[in-house]
Design goal:
The structure is a homodimer. The first copy, chain A, is mainly α and about 150 residues long. In chain A, about 50% of the residues lie in helices and about 5% in strands. Chain A has a single domain, classed as Winged helix-like DNA-binding domain superfamily/Winged helix DNA-binding domain (Arc Repressor Mutant, subunit A, Orthogonal Bundle), CATH 1.10.10. Chain A has a two-stranded antiparallel sheet with strand order 1-2. Chain A binds a DNA duplex (30 and 30 nucleotides) through α3.
Chain lengths: ~150, ~150
Amino acid sequence: MLTMKTKYALKALALLASVEQSEPMLIAEIAEREGIPKKFLELILRELKQHGILDSRKGRGGGYLLRRRPEDINLASIMRILDGPLAPVPCLSQTAYRRCEGCEDERTCGIRLVLKDMHQSTLKILESTTLADVALKVREAAMGSKPVARYSI
Amino acid sequence: MLTMKTKYALKALALLASVEQSEPMLIAEIAEREGIPKKFLELILRELKQHGILDSRKGRGGGYLLRRRPEDINLASIMRILDGPLAPVPCLSQTAYRRCEGCEDERTCGIRLVLKDMHQSTLKILESTTLADVALKVREAAMGSKPVARYSI
DNA sequence: CCCTAGTCTATCGGCTAAGTAGACTACCGG
DNA sequence: CCGGTAGTCTACTTAGCCGATAGACTAGGG
């Protein structure tokens, strides 16, 4: 299961990716629009900033904004920042390899052999999907499920 | 990350799948051969029995054995028993669907749309891989990494 | 009847997830 | 240069789960 932290992060980033990128958005606004506890979101956004995903400005007219273009930020990197390694077992992690304690022979470990396939396929998806893809999918889905357009009176 | 519980379960089951299926194996033996705390393994095996994966016999000559053939037991079902739903978010779970709290429109949720692809690909692998596959992979890997055969003196 | 081996309930320490509190620092406008 | 705005940081708290252990109980075999 994804942690709340990562879920909130993805929601916030998807929001930032879907709006005008030139000007910052307030923590409070993100929190309200996505239904995230403001104080908790604060921590999350700061962490993302410290890892080079976001930028921030203080004072009036401040807030958070993406540091790079949405199409240059993939989901794997975000999840790794907040939830740590993606691998199901440490001996399969690319970013934080550790030998499983008590494992005698890594090459013939059944669990490892099977999970390797699984992990590789999820990695492939998470590393190739960007915030831009997410924003696009949302727009497409919204188009498909709504009656095309709404004309004001 | 996989929990220890599931890891131990997979190891134990892979072992049972790789030996003679007609006679039971002692908890103590499984524990020792796989390096699992015996008392903890007890809980795990019992849980697997209660869910129809294993059978057991008491008294002398007793122990645990697979209830079905290794090729009829897939990894997804095992993981679900011990770790609960496999889905990264409740709204994607097949076996324990729950609406994500605070999610206004499931159809246009960006997270859901992206994770759906990922989850589907892992499900496909876990549901189609059986204990027999694991045992086979282990044998193949052992063949490949060792000098073919060992002749006794 | 007794040894063997699984069954069950309870408990425990430690850790992490999720969220909260409150003080502090920096920027912008006037 | 002052005051409000808005992000920054440290330190809790609270609940729940993970991993493991203890000990009493039940049932089968010989």
